[in-house]
Amino acid sequence: MRGVDDGVTGDAVRGAHAVRGAEAHRGDAHPGSVHPGEARRGGVPGRVTRTGPLAPSADSYDARESYDAPRGGPYGHGSYDPHDPYDLHVPYGPHVPYDVIVVGAGVVGTAIARELARHPLRIAVVEASDDVGEGTSKANTAILHTGFDAVPGSLEARLVQDGYRRLTAYAAACGIPVEPVGALLVAWDEDQLAALPGLLEKAKRNGYEEAALLDAAEVRAREPHLGPGALGALDVPGESIICPWTTPLAYVTQAVRAGVDLHLNCRVEAVEAVGQGRSAGSAVGAGSAESAGGTGRAGSAGGAGSAGGTGRAGGTGGAGSAGSEGGAVSAGGTGSAGSAASAGSAASAGSAGDTPGAAPPPAGDLHTLTTTRGPLRTRYLVNAAGLHADTVDRMLGHETFTVTPRRGQLIVFDKLARDLVRHILLPVPTALGKGVLVAPTVYGNVLLGPTAEDLDDKQATESTAEGLHRLREQGARILPALLDEEVTTVYAGLRAATEDDDYRIHARRGQRYVTVGGIRSTGLTASLAIAAHVTELLADCGLDLGGPPRDLPPVAMPNLGERFPRPYQRADLIAADPEYGTVVCHCERVTRGEIRDALTGTVPPVSVDGLRRRTRARGGRCQGFYCGPEVRRLLEDRGRPEGR
Ligand SMILES: Cc1cc2nc3c(=O)[nH]c(=O)nc-3n(C[C@H](O)[C@H](O)[C@H](O)COP(=O)(O)OP(=O)(O)OC[C@H]3O[C@@H](n4cnc5c(N)ncnc54)[C@H](O)[C@@H]3O)c2cc1C
User: Fold this and answer.
1) CATH code (residue 440)
2) What is the distance in A from the centroid of ligand 1 to the CA of 107?
3) Residue 260 pLDDT greater than 70, yes or no
4) Can you give the pTM of this predicted structure?
């Protein structure tokens, strides 16, 4: 039985005790409620760790013994029942390697972990920062896209459309706030007006039939505060706004409760990868890679691994080429051995395939990840490292794409601006991108942005005077009255742009490795579809999923949406628990009960920013000026009311 003495040190947080928190203020659950499945699963939830070593030393474990172990049996979970939807029992113990490790706990990595958790597998997510959703996933425009404007036939188009359907249903089931406000693509000149019928056609080619053209009078009737000069619009009623913070939190909550381990503050610095008869490339500056037939060392602490021809391939041709590594992607069969460049072109054709006939590595071979918290071992590896997906890819010996951070700055206007806009107001897209929009948020604010600036610094999330000035100029045309409203805050996010216009999702069967790169401006929407796609790719790579996916016990997330009842408005909740009647953050009307729930949840925050993303506390017009000290005190006291 997994328990507190399972060899993990540090602040391991186990989920079973924490069901109460997140579900406490939902109508469909009550404080202390535990789903029947949770109860049956006993102490099986995964671990959430932020400090301490992760695994015993490499010398002390026997990979083959661990891998060959039958499910259940000697590892203490009893027999596995494939017909029980809540029986997710998998072998467990400090010497058992993971079946799959997912690198990155953004919205994409957590979605993948959740999908994999539907199978009897031993899974971990490793994340460099101290929380989930700390990368690009926390700073976007929060639109649930229909995919009406995607490039027809692209992988992104398919996954965005599928993801839209999946996330719409998932959000409704979990209580993630979504508002189907619809979007208007507004034409401001004759050229843009002339482009609208083509966009309507494109929407149809993408399978979206609900779009329609509006004339100038109809546009004005729909959006009375629009600036002068709007000539017409394309109406896309399905476009919606969603809470981007609750989404990855819901995924990871379900995943951890289903047994997935979440290791935070755990940056992957190098990978000693399994490979098909070769080592997985060489670290730059480290000479040639060793070419032992099974496991080879790849990558470097700096992530500067290169496939640039110095690796000595163990019997396969095309030494060091990305195309030859472990049967890399084949795009229409062209990803043959040769130069990294040829592999790049193969990959850019968008295939997520494999070199036909590539044999999987021996079953006992394991990837060894060197992390900032010690080594971890896994049979399969998924790279969902967002802006750093290219760096992790190089650790496995591949040099097929480079992530260029494309900064998007945004301005958040006060809630008093909310009545100025009814839809998401999109520009007609140009070759330079989707352009600047005005959109309401589920928290009751209004967004203006984003910019699109290609940079070379993956940390450059600061706002600039020039960027904000340009946004205000464009906003003045779209919705002039908006600029008279007060600004609550500004922020910026970095899109993981690559040389390609499509996602870079590649499976490498010979390495039991899947890259999930280039998830630029639609990853929130597509996350659940990406997860299903990656699971299929892993199965193609030989992962035994143990049967069809089962439904996970449901999760009920706290409502952060302004259009749905919040705890301070619910007499029933306040009567049952007065903490829901004690407002701590007055701008956002966040109660002490909600803060307590977040701090005792399955994946609790450790920073005021993490707490804000779970509750909205300190997110309002005073930005924590008034409630800041009390919020911090509650954070430090883990939500305990004063004097208790
Ligand atoms: C301005 C802007 C607006 C956007 N608007 C929308 C929108 O309206 N709708 C929509 O659907 N999408 C939108 N997007 C896109 C969406 O936000 C992204 O596609 C999505 O967040 C990407 O998620 P991710 O999990 O791939 O990356 P991330 O959220 O960046 O997660 C990757 C994680 O990997 C971790 N990591 C990296 N390297 C390592 C390592 N070596 N070891 C361990 N961990 C590592 C990082 O710390 C990070 O937490 C927008 C993006 C931006 C920037």
Assistant:
1) 3.30.9.10
2) 7
3) yes
4) 0.82
